[in-house]
Amino acid sequence: MTSSSLRVKGLTKRYGDFVALAPTSLDVAKGEFLTLLGPSGSGKTTLLSLIAGLAHPDEGHILVDDADVTHSPAYDRDIGVVFQNYALFPHMTVEDNIAFPLKMRKVADADLRRRTAEALETVRLPHVAKRYPRELSGGQQQRIALARCIVYRPAIILMDEPLGALDKKLRDQMQLEIKRIHRELGTTIIYVTHDQEEAMTMSDRICLMNAGAIEQLGTPEDLYFRPQSVFVADFLGESNLLSATVRQVDAQGLDIVLADQAAPSRAVGNGASFAAGEPIKLMVRPQNLHVEDAANGKLTGRLVDVMISGSMTRLYIAPERVDMPQLVAAYPTRSSAAPYEIGQLVSLDWNSADAVAIRDGRGH
């Protein structure tokens, strides 16, 4: 399959006074897997619909391989779409469902049969060709919807929450399948989800959206370890966010003071510039928060709850300072781990390299 690059320049969509998508610019490389991530109403589906040609922008341009397709009809953009509800024809066999886009393009019968068989092999379902959609599981139906999309070899594939209707185990399996197909085909994929784990697992880059605009764009590692706003730190994975003040700045990072504590600690600056005296949020991920019995850490608190969620155990701790939020510490579940007691006083510590300073605001 061929793949194309995509460029969005100043794309805007309004519905009356409501701005569904603020002026947005975005470059997607050939063969890239980019995920549009964000809560409901963040603008991700609006952006996808504009790229697909299912809605028309009020301003801006969409370029596929430098060709302006802003006002081209959806069928003339060489873009395929996979929807959450599969959109399979119930009266057609699986084989006929997959062949349908080729029939619309008047592909010769021999080529149509060969490409349909290839698409079924790609999604590893050649044995269901003669069945009807109602005879398939949800995961199988989603794979057939993907096969119907790739059969006509679009240069860009758009996926709008394609795994939203599946249970967690099936979703995990389908994530691996979609990643495998992406590697094999090398096509450009733009994927919409509100599931942060899905985005982290599957993407080359994540475009995190909030209130109709891009909050941060980067690799999963960038967004997870180097969030540029409180929204990013809070949305992508669990995080502990503490109020602090910058004491001084040097080339290696920042000296900071937590709340009104006199003892300074260190944080990494995350590439942003900070000034002495500036209020910030300090982010420490749960797996980097160390819980000890001794009272020699940076904070002390009482254990409120313990939750075991399979492979991870989470401790919920209320700091002794009443103006601090509840904190979460996480570690791999071990049967040999010493038991914690609710109400137990514990000490909390972390490495300065795992403490990220974030400007105390939303970023917009």
From TrEMBL:
Q: Which SMART domains does the annotation name? A: AAA
Q: What are the residue boundaries of the ABC transporter domain, all occurrences included? A: 6-236
Q: Could you say which EC number(s) this protein's record lists? A: 7.6.2.11
Q: Which InterPro entries match?
A: AAA+_ATPase (IPR003593), ABC_SmlMolc_Importer (IPR050093), ABC_transporter-like_ATP-bd (IPR003439), ABC_transporter-like_CS (IPR017871), Mo/tungstate-bd_C_term_dom (IPR008995), P-loop_NTPase (IPR027417), PotA-like (IPR005893), Transp-assoc_OB_typ2 (IPR013611)
Catalytic reactions on record: ATP + H2O + polyamine-[polyamine-binding protein]Side 1 = ADP + phosphate + polyamineSide 2 + [polyamine-binding protein]Side 1
- Taken from the record, one Pfam family name reads ABC_tran
> PROSITE patterns in the record, alphabetically?
ABC_TRANSPORTER_1 (PS00211), ABC_TRANSPORTER_2 (PS50893)
Single GO MF annotation: ATP binding
Q: What binding partners and quaternary form does the record give?
A: The complex is composed of two ATP-binding proteins (PotA), two transmembrane proteins (PotB and PotC) and a solute-binding protein (PotD).
- Cite the NCBIfam families for this sequence: potA
UniProt name for this protein: Spermidine/putrescine import ATP-binding protein PotA
